[in-house]
Amino acid sequence: MQRLYKDQQLFLPHISPSMNIDSLVNPLQRFGINLGLSRIFRLLANLGNPHEQVPIIHVAGTNGKGSVCAYLSSVLTEAGYRTGRYTSPHLVDWTERICINEQPISSDELAQLILQVQSAISPDDEPPTQFEVVTAAAWLYFARQQVDVAVLEVGLGGRLDATNVCLQPLVTIITSISRDHIQQLGPTITDIAREKSGILKPGCPAVVGPLPEDAEKVVRSHILKLQCPLVTPQSARQLEPGWAEYESIKYPLPLQGQIQLTNSALALAALGILQVKGWQITESAIINGMAKTKWPGRIQWITWQQHKLLLDGAHNPGGAHVLRDYVDTLDALTVTWVMGMMANKEHAEIFSALLRDGDKLFLVPVPDPGSALPDELAKLARNICPQLSFCQSYPGLPSGLEAAFANTNDLVVLCGSLYLIGSFLGMGHGAL
Length: 432
Hints:
This protein is α/β, with parallel strands linked by helices. The chain has helices at residues 21-25, 38-46, 65-78, 107-119, 130-144, 182-185, 189-196, 213-226, 259-276, 283-291, 317-328, 347-354, 374-384, 397-406, 418-426; strands at 56-60, 83-86, 98-100, 103-104, 149-153, 171-174, 206-208, 230-231, 237-238, 243-246, 249-252, 300-304, 307-311, 335-339, 360-363, 390-393, 411-415.
């Protein structure tokens, strides 16, 4: 097996100062979303099978997988392990997706890796997708940098996702299952559960969060068939604000929302499995690592033009319910929502989860070709919640935000799409 050492030089074309990651990967969008493992396996074989050199923790789920990855990465880094993290999508910059010890890869190095991956594509083979190329670049980077462990977030589903190429993960985690990406994964919870269960491997420990009954049946059936040791942790216990307790460990909880009691418990359960395997993860590493965890754009407070603003993706019904649960703890009489959504999302279910009588709704486009039309969303929202006190569309995010703050002392929430949140943060509002 070819070994890719971190001091190995990459003999690649010179990257001009004007060449950015977008110019390298955006042309690959024409290959769309095309689930399957044959292309990524061929590509990785051409690159020396770097995925075989990296121990991984594999995390799937409809919601919560990103924050679980963030907790794991932060604690393992604090414990002294050289820790890779691969997540998607990014909010502002492609380099966010690939980190070692919480530090994003440099743009230059990512560009070099993508060029190397592209040079390994055989002209006779079916072209890989954008996600497959970036995933291969992550594997290559982690192998070259000789990480001790990589925490990998599934991109879409699980069974046929490009991250699902390792036969023996250290731990697999399924955080939650609800309806999202039904065009690719199927229309029912059972269909979606079947796809996410595809990350489970024979004999590999599995940590599973609370699931709907239909999903739990599917997941447990897979676990029984594959004889996976199973851990289903109870949610952590809320202590004083910002602190939680799981199995006698009291730790800071910097991420907002009641759901983080569940997500943090899933991460700590996975770390407990590693401890049993001999990994040196002390209680102080857990406490300090949890305290340092960051996961921007998810129930995040920022200041915008001297106004307090709450940000959250809330791009599927499950995420919308989590956001509404958090908003309900704030005792706001009415809420002002600034929202944009992608066209392929379940708009009615998201509106039903979020909107209440008396709320105000300011609809804006997501700066992406796949955006839903704000005028059409406005019509739907009025049907879903006829007692909205205000509902109007705006041509862009800046005008929508300015209008939302013009005559209100309400709680203002920007949500509906991670692409929208990323665009907002990319304008220089808030920090990652």
